[in-house]
Amino acid sequence: MEKIVVICVDDQQEVLSAVLKDLSPLQASFMIEECDSGEEALELMDELDAEGHYIGLVISDHVMPGKNGVELLTDVTNDSRFIKTKKILLTGQATHQDTIAAINHARIESYFEKPWDAETLVSCARTLLTEYIFDMGFDYQEWGEVLDNTTVLRRLR
Known about the structure:
This is Response regulatory domain-containing protein. By secondary structure, the chain is of the alpha/beta class. It has helices spanning 13-22, 38-50, 69-78, 96-104, 118-135, 149-156, and strands at residues 4-9, 31-35, 54-60, 86-91, 110-113. Strands 2-1-3-4-5 form a 5-stranded parallel beta sheet, sandwiched between helices. β4, α4 and β5 (110-113) form a beta-alpha-beta unit. The chain is globular, with a radius of gyration of 15 Å.
């Protein structure tokens, strides 16, 4: 069965573990994957897409070896397969210019500075995944209580 996937990207395992722990309320309804680099995330996205899964959300750190978070999220934005994928930049070291690039080129939906508030991150992820489900034209009722009710009501109007 096709699943909606959340991909979390950070080169620091302790940060990835914290993000995964925070997103655990979503695990029953969404597939949550972790990657330690931008390159690995793009490879995983190719594999998941080929298997028929949907990439609903990418949460990425900015400062990583190789491809940084803004570059990764820009690549996601520029790939027609993932045009509706939602994106969050999660970082403690982005400069003002990095943030501008993330908004203008990667078209991120949200930006969180480390350390983040777990409830706020989960709420944001829930809202973005709800928007993704509506943007894709999926039957929102399949995801039941995990969706953001305010977003559901707004989209149904």
